[in-house]
Each structure stands twice: as C-alpha cells, then as structure tokens.
Amino acid sequence: MIEGVVNAAYEPIVTLGIQGPTGQASVIEAVIDTGFTGFLTVTPALVSELGLRYLTRGWASLADGSEVPFDVYDVTVLWDGRPVRVEADAADTTPLVGMRLLDRHNLNMDVENGGRVIIQAND
After folding, report:
1. What pairing do the DSSP bridges indicate for beta strands 82-90 and 40-42?
2. Which end of the chain is more exposed for a tag (fewer CB within 10 A), N or C?
3. Residue-wise pLDDT tens digits, 39-69
C-alpha cells in the first residue's frame, strides 16, 4: 500500500523513491494525475542527477492543438514496496504519477485539505 495526502491546492501527493541505472537514488513528491496516461514524469534536473538512460522522444498534444516534444527515460521506481522499471517523461514541472503506473491498483482519496490518499494493489 502507498499512502499520501491531498495538499491545500487539492492535489493528491505521494512520496516515491526512484533510482538511476548505477544505483543513484532520490525521493520525490509526485502529484497523481488521472489525466496523464503515462507512467511518471521527472524533471530534467533529476534526469541529470540520477544519470537516467535515454529511451526515445515522445510528443504531447496541448489543449490548443499544438504538439510539443519531450524526452523519455528509463527509471526504477519503488512502487508498492517493489522496484519497478518504467518510462519517465522529462518535464520541467512537478513530477506526476500517471494512469499506467496506477494500472491494477485501486486509488482512494478523501478530497479535502489534508485528506488521505491510498493506493492499493488489486489482488
């Protein structure tokens, strides 16, 4: 089980450990974004700090219809007590947990400032 909290801006936040290919590790706070269909986003600074391995370039469609490129990296995230290798999109913003990382899990939130966030594996 992963636990987090809803912050004053009504964002569900979880703390995650992540690791690069040679063992460099960091702890991040990430916002759960059910509108994001990827696994995870990380900042370019974190990509450099952890020495993440480049995988490919992706494209995101913005609300105005334009498309912007982003780089995709390989990262290991400590997810529900286990190390899991996922694709992380580099974005110069707050890290996000997307729907692909939540796959086969149940997300429950008490939507209020300080509310509890719980992510549990579907058994």
Report:
1. parallel
2. C
3. 999 999 999 999 999 999 999 887 898 998 9
Is pLDDT above 90 for 114? Answer: yes
Residue 100 clears pLDDT 80, i.e. is over it: yes
DSSP element (H, E) containing 85: strand 82-90
Residues 6 or more apart whose CB falls under 8 angstroms from that of 45 comprise none
**If you average pLDDT over residues 25-37, what whole number do you get?**
96
**C-alpha to C-alpha distance for 9 and 19, rounded to whole angstroms:** 28
Buried b (16+ CB within 10 A) or exposed e, 31-42: bbbeebebbbbb
3-state secondary structure of 48: helix
Burial label, 2 (beta-carbon count in 10 A; 0-12, 13-18, 19+)? buried
Helix (H, G, I), strand (E, B) or coil at 1: coil
For tokens 């490919």, what's the residue?
Answer: 56
Max alpha carbon distance in the chain (Å)?
40
